[in-house]
Amino acid sequence: MAEVVVDRVTKRFGDVEANRDISLTVPNGEFMVLLGPTGAGKTTLLRLIAGLEKPDAGSISFDECDVTDDPPAQRNVSVVFQQYSLYPHLTVFDNLAFPLRAPVRRVPESEIKRRVEEVARLVRIDHKLANAATRLSGGEMQRVAIGRALVRRPSIYLMDEPLSSLDAKLRAELRVELKHIQADLGATVLYVTHDQVEALTMASRIGILEQGRLVQVGTPQDIYERPANIYVAGRLGIPAINFLPVDALPVEGAPQRTAKVGARTEHIELVPAVDGPAEVVLVEHLGSENFLHLQVGPHKLVTLVPPGERWHSGARARVTLRRPLCFDTAGQLLVA
Amino acid sequence: MAEIDLQNVQKRFGDFTAVRESSFTIRDGEFFVLLGPSGCGKTTTLRMIAGLELPTEGKILLDGEDVTYKRASQRDIGFVFQLFALYPRMTVRENIAFPLKCQSVPRAETKRRVEEVAKLLRIEHLLERSVSGLSGGDSQRVALGRALVRRAKACMMDEPLGALDAEFRHLMCVELHALHDRIRATTVYVTHDQTEAMAMADRIAVMNHGVVVQIGSPQDIYDRPSAMHVAGFIGSPPMNFLRFKSSLAQGQRSVQLNGAAIRVPTLRQAVAEGELALGVRPEHVTISDAGEIRGEVFGVEYMGTMQIVTVNTKHGQLKARIPSRQRVQVREAVGLNFDSERLVVFDAVSGSALKSRLFEESADG
User: CB–CB of A266 and B305 under 8 A?
Assistant: First the structure.
């Protein structure tokens, strides 16, 4: 495993600046997640690190060794893509062994067997090693694809939305598994996703990308509790954070220059009141909780309430915002 | 609008029984969701109601009228599919107006109704646009518009949001729900996505292997699942099951797991020695040093205000949903406590919930 340093990297495709002056360090053993919507430049950055693209400016180094001009094969990286591509004519075992059997690697067969079996246990596919790759479920195939990356000991594992083609239940399972495997191996991982839940739950640190720029890097807790600006705040939280002008509702603990407040469930105090300014327009059941959709004058507000609190459409409430996130006119976070 | 009544409806395809004797009533104006994994018979049920399949046995009544053997076109039912087929050469207006044109509705009346529906769906500004350039969401709104403009007795929707990405699907869910609140059309909605079902349904019918396992309001099904299939299908993460072996007597108020006595809602039913499962929702678990059930933390997932902690125990893996401010480390040995009022004991062989005081509470409590 290695420390990966991206130094002032810019990448253009024609007129589009896919990555603009990005500097980022992924320390050895870290699970770094790049989060951003489609087109933010996260896959480009991953491809630059893999060597599948060359930067127009800046450099990339692995353990203080400049690899900017090295082709992918010399960089010793492992990549997992969203679309698992297994060799359909090979068994699960042979698919997993494939990277080790490359002529340049010359790994002895007994060593291959040992490592394949170890990885198969890790990704829980050891009971299907003799199966044809085509006779697996989607989740099993993706576990083989992940296993094929893990069987090598590269400088860094690069993963591009590896879970997004799976159904919700399996995704939730593999999130925990993947994080566990990474911690066990002490692996350095750069993981790209547009799914905030994956970022929050798996990352040691998250890098937030916006239109080719890296706008904030920090632990999930940092980014959730102290987002640098409105854009970052809007990327995290279920339900999504509510943005309101500072004078829309009574606010406690807003600094002087506040122009806009960002309120999450934990900042919102609701009291039922027939003459309250907020009206419940919709109650959405989750089971464990309810999403309450409120209308306050021209503004909408969504918050979570326990199912025991019996709100219904048309009910009214008074709302107080306690110590919400506060932003200035430029959208930057103000610290009280 | 209409009430739909299914009486002992069955559907076989050769040797395969897609739907086993089902009887239930969909109330007038209700948003009724058929929920289950693929192959459970939910789409076949919907297609029989719509008249696209004939039942092998049983009867279907629409507002008291037997329509079992009537064609789809004679049933007055609107339909929205997952892959919305719009006419690509027509404008939004022409697409929505199409069903009315087929029924030879006068032009002025057509114009009025199309505009009314477009307003309801907030796509008035798109009426003269060609549908070929529309976003996924707008296309879906046009497809909905085409189903609604007929003012059919009922509207059938087969995974209409399945093709959309997660964030957008949630947005459309909210919109559909609000739309139904306004027009109150009897709606039968098929999905395999429990969050969609929970968010929108007045009542949910959970199906498995061609059988309706449970029917109830979202909260009722969530709080009082009648079977492990239902409990494990609903909730994210779904209900945990701790496996144990025991016999239980009627009136018993606790169960023994590895010597620890766990309080449960008073049992109203006795069972002989056998495989059982204790059902616990993740939000009803607390982690403390003094917990009766011991385990080791396998994973911690930060979610902002809350975190999900995965714990390995002797009775299986369990997920707890607890506030993020509580510090928990991977590999830490922890104790677990449960909210005893909310536990469900299941017969792990048949999968059925054992009767207990929990099931006697009010249905929407």
Answer: yes
The pTM score is 0.85
Q: Looking at chain B, how many residues does it have?
A: 365
- Total domains in chain B come to 2
Encoding tokens for residue B232? Answer: 């494990």
B296 and B195: one domain? no
Sort strands A4-13 and A16-26 into parallel, antiparallel or unpaired: antiparallel
What are the structural domains of chain A?
4-235 (3.40.50.300), 242-334 (2.40.50.140)
pLDDT of residue B365: 39
**Do the chains contact at A220 and B302, CB–CB below 8 Å?**
yes
One-letter amino acid for residue A181 of the chain: I
> Is B82 inside any structural domain?
yes
In a domain, B235, yes or no: yes
Find out whether B162 and B195 touch, Cβ atoms under 8 Å: no
Q: Say if the Cβ atoms of A288 and B298 lie within 8 Å.
A: no
Instruction: Check if A108 contacts B (Cβ < 8 Å).
Output: no
Supply the range of the domain harboring residue B29: 4-223
- The runs of H, that is alpha helices, within B204-273 are 218-223, 228-233
> What are A160's two structure tokens?
């591009």
B365 domain residue, yes or no: no
Facing residue for A284 by CB, picked from B174, B282, B303: B174
pLDDT at B340: 95
Could you tell me if A124 lies within 8 Å of chain B, comparing CB atoms? no
* CATH assignment of the domain containing B309: 2.40.50.140
Instruction: Say if residue B265 is in the same domain as residue B153.
Output: no
Specify the pairing of strand B154-158 against strand B77-80: parallel
Note the Cα A242 to chain centre separation in Å.
Answer: 21
Quote the minimal CA–CA distance from A253 to chain B in Å: 20
Q: Does residue B43 sit within a domain? A: yes
CA nearest neighbour of A210 among A9, A24, A40:
A40
State the ipTM, two decimals: 0.83
Give the chain B residue nearest A233 (alpha carbons): B304
Residue A111 has pLDDT above 50, yes or no: yes
CATH number of the domain that B216 lies in?
A: 3.40.50.300
A286 near B CB under 8 A: yes
- Given B202, B223, B244, which residue is the final one in a domain? B223
Residues B118, B265, single domain; the answer is no
All residues of chain A having their beta carbon less than 8 Å from the beta carbon of residue B310 are 176
Q: Which of A285, A300, A313 to substitute to test the interface with B, most B CBs within 10 Å?
A: A285
Beta carbons of B303 and A291 less than 8 Å apart: no
Separation in Å, CA of A50 to nearest CA in chain B: 28
pLDDT digits (tens, 9 = 90+) for B37-79: 888 999 999 999 999 999 999 999 999 999 999 998 888 888 8
